[in-house]
Amino acid sequence: MCGRYTLRRSELARAAFAALSDASFDEFTERPRFNLAPSQELPVVRLNAEGRRVIGLAQWGLIPAWTKGSPKNKPINARAETVATSGMFRQAFGRRRCLIPADGFYEWQGAKPPKQPYFMQMTDGDLFGFAGLWERWKPQDAEVAIDTFAIITTDPNELMRPIHNRMPVILRPADYAAWLDRETPLEAIEGMLKAYDPAAMIAFPVKELVNNPRNDFSECVEPIDAPSGIDSVISDV
User: Fold this and answer.
1) Facing residues of 45 across strands?
2) Rounded to whole angstroms, how far apart are CA atoms 4 and 65?
3) Residue 81, Cβ neighbours under 10 Å: how many?
4) Is residue 219 packed enough to be buried (19+ CB in 10 Å), middle (13-18) or exposed (0-12)?
């Protein structure tokens, strides 16, 4: 799964994704973010009615538009293997795909607590885009709808495999336009749902500070030596 990520240079996302921005995103860029967590309102890139890319905020935890009453399930991830057929995600996968700007993410190694957190990023530290889905849900008797999203996950690459059995789908910039375009054949979209090139990524252990979403500061991403008894997959940093 993917349950935490970073966006430390969010002010660069507008240019990196060639997107317009709304007022909510402009406010978000006021400080770097080191520990983004489910239920928070976070940046997503979508196409507007005119076909332009727009970056704004949505809540992490998908609520389908057809949900009645109080939602019992708000998935933060969707599996690449079933996203096209799942009743929860099928409509969004076909018509409401988005990009989730990030510059790193966390995953935990170990079958049981205490698990060791690891941080993954690109070797050059650049921003990238997770493959995402979004929905607009209006609670009963509410005047304002809520935009929500989930991140698609897939099998891990060679870098991630010693750490966890899943990883988020990271899209190549060359695929951004096709991913966002609802007219792209689903066969082509499904072909993008694969593990990212491990040679372009690094991974290293970090402190358990990241376990608490209230800890949102630079120390969360500082490398540490792997504790005794944990298989190290540390990369050059």
Assistant:
1) 55, 99
2) 25
3) 13
4) exposed
**pTM (2 d.p.):** 0.94
**Radius of gyration in angstroms for the set of CA atoms belonging to the chain, rounded to a whole number:** 17
107 part of the active site: yes
**Which pLDDT tens digit goes with each residue over 93-124?**
999 999 999 999 999 998 788 899 999 999 99
User: Which residue in the list 41, 81, 98, 107 is annotated as catalytic?
Assistant: 107
Active site residue 2: yes
Nearest CA-CA partner of 96 in 164, 207, 189: 189
Choosing from 2, 98, 135, 220, the catalytic residue is: 2
Q: Any idea which residue has 């704004």 for tokens?
A: 56
End-to-end CA distance of the chain: 24
CA gap 65, 161 in Å, rounded: 35
Token readout for 211 is 């376990």
pLDDT in tens, 14-53: 999 999 988 789 889 989 999 999 999 999 999 999 999 9
Is the domain spanning 5-114+126-198 CATH 3.90.1680.10? The answer is: yes
Q: Which residues contact 187 (CB under 8 A, 6 or more apart)?
A: none
43's enclosing H/E stretch is strand 41-47
List the chain domain ranges.
5-114+126-198
